[in-house]
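---------- Forwarded message ----------

FYI, see the EF-hand domain-containing protein record below. Original note from H. follows.
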Amino acid sequence: MVGHFKVIWRLVYGILTAGHTMLSVVALIALGLWVCGCVAIEIITKDPDLASDLRTEQIVEENFGTLGRSCLTLLQFATLDSIAQVYFPLIMVKEWLLFFFLPIMLFLSIALMNLVTAVLVEHALEHAAHEAETERLKTKQKIKAALPALLDTFQRLDVDQSGFITKEEIKHVSLEMLPPKLLDHVSVDSMADLFDLLDVDNGGELSQPEFVEGLSRESIFQVVPRRIYCWAHFVIFTFKIKTF
């Protein structure tokens, strides 16, 4: 039950900490819409040809009649919400308006929205790294508490009491012999796989320091990549859904 609340808290925390970024983006969008709305009043609303042409007269009046309408219309460009019926007739009458509408679409709907995604993903990765570091410290404490049991495990695995364990000695032993506090952090299917993972020099045998230090190292450093990957995947997937 506690695990579910931790997941919910991570999501809520991510939304709360993204508030500053979102407010900055909203302010930037509002400023951009206001500037472009003022320009639209000058080059579209006050253009006599557009105001008198039957194809564009109603569009100019309904969409660019006032500064407020101009900003609301240009907001559609940020979301790409049925904008063809607005800009297409205007460009047919005044071809140079393409150079007004195209930068708005590129800046508001593509560049700015992708920038928001990139900033939030970066923030999510930083949060995941911080959380992973906290988890790593907790794992260190678990390892410290499990150290006596880990040394006892090595002694039981060292059947011939040679001070070394070989793959033959442990390949038929169950993983449940490992301390439960460490077992959750080691991604192997058998003791033979664990031996291959810890035997970095391919010497065919593990001393007590190699066994203890290697198992501790794997337990600690598997925490970070998994946590960061999960956060990054969640954020990217979420914004892909919102974008499309």
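H. also flagged this: Residues 239-244 have pLDDT under 50 and may be disordered.
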